[in-house]
Design goal:
By secondary structure, the chain is mainly alpha-helical. It has a domain at 37-112. The protein has helices at 3-10, 33-42, 45-49, 57-75, 83-112, 114-118, and strands at residues 23-24, 27-28. It has a two-stranded antiparallel ribbon with strand order 1-2. A hairpin with a 2-residue loop joins β1 (23-24) and β2. α2 (33-42) runs parallel beside α5 and α4 packs antiparallel against α5 (83-112). The longest helix has 30 residues, at 83-112.
Length: 119
Amino acid sequence: MTKKEFYESMLNVCHRRPERSFFWKGKQFPVCARCTGTVLGFVTLPLFALKILSLNFLWIFLLMLPCWLDGATQLYGWRQSNNWLRLGTGFLLGMAQMGLVAIVGDWIIEKTGIINLIS
């Protein structure tokens, strides 16, 4: 995938508004600040896969809540967010999503007995 194709694919999932994006050396990030935080949160997946971190559904919900509230209150014009807040709440959202991926992955492994097949 070329750099141009990558950026164009991001248009399908992110608005990429310049005022809501970070810039590095005069070039705009391929996704907005909130999506940047979410992608950075995805980096936590190995911590969940290796059982260094674990979350239950309540914590997953609580970690997602700040991003939803930040986005909703901004969408309805109740307040204005900033890129650093978007980055932070996006990171919490991405981390929560990885916690959910780990739960679902563990459930699939348990139900299918895939670990027994490998050993």
